[in-house]
Design a protein that fits this description.
Residues about 255-260 have low confidence and may be disordered. This protein is mostly helical. Helix 1 (about 1-60) runs antiparallel to helix 3 and helix 1 (about 1-60) runs antiparallel to helix 4. The protein has helices at about 1-60, 60-70, 75-115, 120-135, 140-195, 200-230, 240-245, 260-310. The protein is elongated and about 95 Å long.
């Protein structure tokens, strides 16, 4: 009976940590959802405004006719179309982010629904534990139960660290992919500026598209990494502004207007991507050090628990 309750205590400690973690992540995702919904509202207004400007220039009117006669219509229309495409691009990116946040919220709500009875089950176990300690003739019963509680906490925290490390490794891999694509885009962009021709321009923009996909992937993974760090950041003594890292790719999704801006943006994106790769690596080093430390503590705990169990026999 001791073994059965102790085993369940270890499991329930893990579930309690999970429940706290999911609640914390859910609250953070909901705050983020409010922000993205406000941004979406602003971007829709901006896009429709740009769209109307293009439609106005393409329509038949005295202003349009005057612009045509003075030779400024095509120039102005091209500029307005570029601004409309840029606004549409930002809007689509924000909509994609909102869908991802919605999916994450739904997943967390399902996880919490599966753990809704955890607290009451824990209280019942505590009552059983108290009754067994009172009825036990062994002076080691209370110590054994305490060690089981500590073991549960150690195991749960180790799982959280491992999940945070996995999330961080995904961010790091996505940033490497983005860096590779940006370096290729930069190389081909330099050739393009020196008269590389149509093919060179096409290859450059292909690498820009790849970099953009990788940066979105990195930003998505960064969001999940930030959520995994919520419950381990303080205990692992991490001092890092993940919210600032989450925003780093935003400027990249504004769209490219003229060629020299493309090259400057590629350079800036590459520098920031490399910088954030280093930051993520530093966080991962600290998390891995904390993981090894907690594994040692768990091993000591389990050895002490085994010693008491063997002495009871």
């Amino acid at each position: 009976m001791y073994t059965e309750i102790n085993t369940r205590l270890v499991e329930i400690q893990g579930n309690l940590r999970k429940k706290d973690k999911y609640e914390m992540q859910l609250a953070d995702f909901k705050r983020e959802l409010e922000t993205i919904e406000e941004r979406l509202s602003q971007l829709r207004v901006q896009f429709h405004s740009e769209q109307k400007e293009v439609e106005k220039l393409e329509s038949v009117s005295l202003t349009n006719l005057f612009a045509t006669l003075t030779g400024k219509k095509d120039e102005k229309l091209t500029k307005e179309k570029q601004e409309m495409v840029a606004a549409q691009h930002k809007l689509e990116e924000a909509e994609k982010t909102k869908r991802e946040i919605d999916e994450a919220i739904l997943g967390l709500e399902n996880n919490l629904a599966n753990l809704q009875n955890t607290e009451s089950e824990y209280q019942q176990l505590l009552l059983q534990k108290e009754a067994m300690i009172k009825s036990s003739a062994s002076p080691f019963a209370a110590a054994l139960f305490d060690l089981s509680g500590q073991e549960g906490k150690h195991k749960a925290y180790i799982v959280e660290l491992e999940e945070a490390i996995t999330a961080g490794e995904r961010v790091r891999d996505a940033l490497v992919d983005a860096s590779d694509s940006l370096e290729e885009a930069s190389t081909w962009g330099t050739l393009d500026m020196f008269g590389g021709g149509t093919i060179t321009g096409l290859v450059k923009h292909q690498h820009i598209d790849e970099a953009e996909d990788a940066l979105h992937h990195a930003q998505t993974n960064m969001r999940h990494f930030q959520k995994e760090l919520l419950d381990v950041q303080e205990q692992a003594h991490l001092e890092v502004d993940i919210s600032e890292m989450l925003r780093f790719a935003d400027f990249f999704f504004d769209g490219f207007i003229v060629d020299f801006m493309v090259q400057e943006k590629i350079k800036q994106s590459l520098e920031e991507t490399i910088s954030h790769h280093e930051k993520v690596n530093n966080i991962l080093m600290k998390l891995n050090a904390q993981l090894e430390e907690k594994k040692i503590e768990l091993e000591i705990n389990q050895k002490e628990k085994l010693r008491i169990i063997e002495s009871l026999g």
